[in-house]
Design brief:
The chain has 178 residues and is of the alpha+beta class. It has a single domain, classed as minor pseudopilin epsh domain (minor pseudopilin epsh fold, 3-Layer(bab) Sandwich). It is 26% helix and 30% strand. It has 2 helices and 10 strands. The strands form 2 sheets. Strands 1, 2, 3, 4 and 7 form a 5-stranded antiparallel beta sheet that branches. The termini are far apart. The model has no long low-confidence stretch (mean pLDDT 84).
């Protein structure tokens, strides 16, 4: 049996199998790689969705901070729902003004909402609040009297609801956006 220069031997004189991959083998590998790429892409978090979810949780913490600060003070505090965020206000001389003494870090007197997340609804004591009026965009926290409220936040992909309960607890509910 003749031996080739590469060290392989031919089984029959003059016949040699062509080396390489067939089109079918290449297509199978491409399909497998495509499936792997899609599965990796689906498991990675979307940064915009993650920012919205973190902001919704921060809004719940901001409401809890308002309740906690109101209980520790002699006067009422309000959580004002602005166009781009939430601000803690105190009542001084019958005016709602920003806190004179901001809370200790990491808590903040104001919280900015990320792009795409907005306040879409507010209900206080079972009444739907008109969000077009600035003075009605406040949730007032009296010492020892937790407000009953429902705050709706809408992002590009999800919807969150923050509920102020009669026992003083504040809950965050994550729902699929419609």
């Amino acid at each position: 049996m003749p031996t080739l220069a590469t060290g392989r031997s031919e089984s029959r004189a003059g016949t040699r199998r062509a080396s390489g991959f067939t089109l079918l083998e290449i297509l199978v590998v491409m399909v497998i790689l495509g499936l792997l790429a899609v599965s990796v892409n689906l498991t990675l978090p979307d940064p915009a969705r993650q920012a919205e979810a973190e902001a919704a949780a921060a809004c719940r913490r901001q409401a809890e901070l308002a309740a906690r600060l109101a209980d520790g003070r002699a006067g009422a505090l309000a959580l004002e729902l602005g166009e781009r965020g939430l601000n803690l206000l105190e009542n001084r001389d019958a005016l709602w003004l920003p806190l004179a003494t901001p809370p200790q870090p990491p808590a903040q007197a104001s919280l900015a909402l990320p792009e795409g997340l907005r306040v879409s609804g507010l209900e206080i004591d079972g009444r739907r609040i008109d969000l077009s009026r600035a003075e009605s965009r406040r949730i007032v926290f009296q010492p020892g009297q937790p407000p009953l409220f429902r705050l709706d936040l809408t992002g590009q992909h999800r919807h969150w609801r923050i509920d102020g309960l009669p026992n003083g607890h504040i809950e965050l509910h994550d729902e699929a956006a419609s």
